Amino acid sequence: MDEPEAMLVIPHRQLSPDALTGLIEEFVTRDGTDSGYTRGSLDESVAMVRRQLDVGQAVIVFDNRTQTCNIVPAETIKTTNQS
């Protein structure tokens, strides 16, 4: 069973512009994942993820157990928190 504090949502506007861009770039170019953002250029993919963060369709999460960040659909977090 997941602990409530195991996953923290990090408001993307609290990250510096450089940190946010770096996180998004790492996410869209990550090996071994099919993020669905590989069809366009890196700039197009970063802009798409940034728009999703801006409108609340995606969120940044930090996993305390693995000490890693990820970008996930916002509905994933809402569903998990309601369980």
Jot down its keywords:
83 residues, alpha+beta, Arc Repressor Mutant, subunit A, 42% helix, 19% strand
Straight-line N-to-C gap: 11 Å
**Strand proportion:** 15-25%
Number of helices: 3
Fourth-tier CATH superfamily name: YehU-like
Care to describe what's here?
The chain has 83 residues and is of the alpha+beta class. It has a single domain, classed as YehU-like (Arc Repressor Mutant, subunit A), CATH 1.10.10. Helix content is 42%, strand content 19%. It has three helices and three strands, in the order E-H-H-E-E-H. A three-stranded antiparallel beta sheet has the order 1-2-3. A hairpin with a 4-residue loop joins strand 2 and strand 3. Helix 1 (17-28) crosses helix 2. Belongs to the UPF0270 family. This is UPF0270 protein. Pfam families: UPF0270 (PF06794).
Give me the secondary-structure topology.
Blueprint: E1 7-10, H1 17-28, H2 42-55, E2 58-63, E3 68-73, H3 74-82
Antiparallel strand pairs: 1-2, 2-3
Helix pairs in contact: 1-2
